[in-house]
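User: quick one - fold this with zinc ion bound?
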Amino acid sequence: MAQTVADQSAKQPQVLIFDTTLRDGEQSPGATMTHAEKLEIAGLLDEMGVDIIEAGFPIASEGDFAAVSEIAKNARNATICGLARANYKDIDRAWEAVKHAKSPRIHTFIGTSPLHRAIPNLDMDQMAERIHQTVTHARNLCDNIQWSPMDATRTEADYLCRVVEIAIRAGATTINIPDTVGYTYPMESAKIIRMLLERVPGADEIIFATHCHNDLGMATANSLAAVEAGARQIECTINGLGERAGNTALEEVVMALRVRNDILPYRTGIDTTKIMHLSRRVSTVSGFVVQPNKAIVGKNAFLHESGIHQDGVLKNVETFEIMKPEHIGLNAKNIVMGKHSGRAALRSKLAELGYDLADNQLNDVFVRFKALADRKKEVYDEDILALVADEQTLDAHDTLVLKKLRVICGTDGPQEADMVMSVDGVDHHIDATGDGPVDAAFNCVKQLFPHKARLQVYQVAAVTAGTDAQATVSVRLEEDGRIVTGMSADTDTIVASVKAYINALNRLIVRRTKSAPNDDLKSVSYIDAP
Ligand code: KIV
Ligand code: ZN
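Assistant: Sure. Structure tokens for the protein plus zinc ion:
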């Protein structure tokens, strides 16, 4: 039986969960996901019970359009939503992509605050007219229309009421109130929703949504305050992924509604046991490492280090834990894995961690697991997760594959690297020097595959404690406005670094074929096309 918020009463009002990891989350610089990864994440969100999946911004690129269309075709339960600016071309394109879904939705928006009105140079009346026309146009295509006044929290109260009323009259079924720049605070967030419910005719017939950004670290609190005031849809992303400080984190609002159901008596349809797996997958495919102290999904969220805490937890776990790890899908069984563990044990461990791999993938992971177990005394869950994540970054169609690497490093530079890399199926051999072993190895890659991508981020983290720990490395590259992220894991930090670099280059190669320079979601202007 799915463990959906069992302790919540079925009589409580439902709060819809609208996940925008694949749209607003993917907008974070470097968080670009491949087509296959978007499909996988959408499938997991659907399975978890997310009510609405904002699958992308179809006008932004051919890639986005294709991803939204395919997600729409595959969705089983969730409503699939596509974003559109306030113009007919965007709206038509969004409809073309989402129309395949059993339950499609178009989400159209325009910036209504004084600062945002100034950009397209529309006065209040002209903007009101634009809203009327575009929402009417969308509603003629689709029954399920969401409209957002972008930067609502910095829009004059009277004007906000006026434009919300226009959108409702034109046929919007959900009105989303975005705190686009993470500017509001809980009391104000609640006040805006209450005001709209009180003042706008027809407000009781539609659903109000709350969409908060985390610039002041208040996104979750602001979202919950809006719910208390009457909002019935929360917009959020896994791990709070999103531009700048990100969005409201799905795991935070859902677990807050579960743990504090005494003061927040609202139910969601989310199977919370899927949270951890989704968090890990989104972290891997987006290249955004989850900070260890992040609420709910951080590595330390259920660890107790201090003596007093450990003592308390041993006597009664509730002394320092307000939720159980298994509520978010953190396993409690802890089968110890080592070099004597067989394929069946690995399969069972993977299932416990939320993975159901195809036989050929399981075989590959098993070979790597055995190699790791030979090098490392204890293989922890984190090691296995890093291994699987690394395996999933590989693609049979990759142009570049690392075949061999030897590095000489030490106190007397320059450091040297000697590499065999296959480019389009042909092995090439090269050596190069550099300022440090990573630089030397990256120079080999650059010589074998010349490119002008700039390295924006190079990040190394240890998967577990100990000097034999695996390192996970993420690399972010930028070329002509296209930003890609690659990641890899290995007990050898230099090998992990080179594999992450090559992974990012492979993604860049795919992106080059799919889009013209700057033809990217991140470069689509929010200013309306005329
Ligand atoms: O933050 C925001 O205003 C948005 C809109 C497009 C809804 O993401
Ligand atoms: Zn947003």
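One thing worth noting: The pocket of zinc ion (ligand 2) is lined by residues 24, 178, 180, 211, 213 (CB under 6 Å).
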